[in-house]
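Minutes, project check-in
Item: structure for the 327-residue chain
Input as provided by the requester:
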Amino acid sequence: MPNGYLETIEQGIRVAGALSRHMSLGKGTEEERILRLREELQQADALVIGAGAGLSTSAGFSYSGDRFDQWFGDFADKYGFQDMYAGGFYPYSSKEEFWAYWARYIYVNRYLDPPRPVYRDLYQLLKDKDYFVITTNVDHCFQKAGFDKERLFYTQGDYGLFQSVNPAIRRTYDNRDWIMEAMEAQGYVRGEDGIFQLPKDGRVSMAIPEDLLPVCPDDGSDFTMNLRSDDSFVEDQGWHRASAAYAEFLAGHQGQHVLFLELGVGSNTPVIVKYPFWQMTLENDQAVYACVNYGQAFCPGGIEERSICLDIDIGRLLAEIKKEVEG
């Protein structure tokens, strides 16, 4: 099968030196850029969506503040960290406590819907279009919002999957049932809406029972999350099918009017989305590049005339465009 992941990274590496010397914030007023993006969403032959953490942040998936306090206040009081990321790297003294933390972490970031309808608004704009999504996010918000899973490529893993620490086992395992059991084991109570809540006394355990520790059914080894951090990351059959589908989608639309829409992509992994989008826009004179990113909207000068840069909250923008389209 074609490997869209490697192909897109190779494109990103090629463009990194060639286009990064002169950056532009785009042309036109904000109103003119929004109008142009709306027109491109309606007129493009195909849309390639590249999504980063900023999209989920706009949807309300904050990893600190009230959301952190609600679910991890006891861990914060005991250990002093103030956000979910820090808690994910804390050296807990026991596996029971480590997995209690990660059960909550996965539950709130994978199995709960985001507080704001940003993904659903995006889906309403794209559902009848010829689109494909590549994302570095691992929260599966696209699929929960209704996007066709055959048009999604999660490059960096999935909070909803475990993998064995044994590098010889190259497969992943769905963790939904285990997560729900681990939440109940800590004392959380499922409400009428199906969402876990604190019990009436507000007290939950910070550890799970030893017999609930997750282990690989194939060899009894420990589980870990299916998240890309090094070469131990498992690219399973589903991952490879999605990578191939992405490569085939790009190949099938070469030379056409394609909108490369980048949403909330930062600078941590630019060779996966940002740089390849620049390169593919440069190579196809019918393509248009759009970047929507609060505080980080820019493009290379070489594609400035075919770029739309919007320094604006993604949720606000999508809601505005959706309202205008429906009107």
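Outcome recorded: Residues 65-113+176-213 form one domain.
No further action items on this chain.
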